[in-house]
Amino acid sequence: MRIFILMLFILCIQSIKAQELFVYTEPASNMSAKSIGVRFNNSLMKESSGKNYSYHLLPEIMWGVSKKIMVHADLFLSNRNKQFNAEGAAIYLKYRFYSEDQIHSHFRMAAFARAAFNNSDIHQPVVDLNGHNSGYEAGLIATKLINKLALSASSSLLHALDNGK
Prior knowledge:
Helix content: under 10%
Low-confidence stretches: none
């Protein structure tokens, strides 16, 4: 039965038509100007001590200010402290400063910055400004699109801060 479900899932994926898909990273391209998007990220994590699970919900609103500027605002919610509470927020800004467009191909570069505040306890060794740590980040993104293949690379400097506890 598991093999059948896996094969069905693979067949469904092959029929999806998308130009670019970046789940946890951003391409150098922006959203369309004057558009608004909403995204909900969810995670269910097993706590290292005990049998408890914590649920994290990260609603995000995205705004295409212009063809060169895009802004994201995130809210961090979880039930880690036995009740569902807001733990923090983040703001993300991206400025596309270079664009070379051709038929079925483009190359774009953008600079980005993110600032996050989180008041929850630090409960994982990895630094993550997307729901777990306070801090700030700045970097560059380059994306090359050739037909339906998108290659993207990013580099950034990230500074984590104490979460306040």
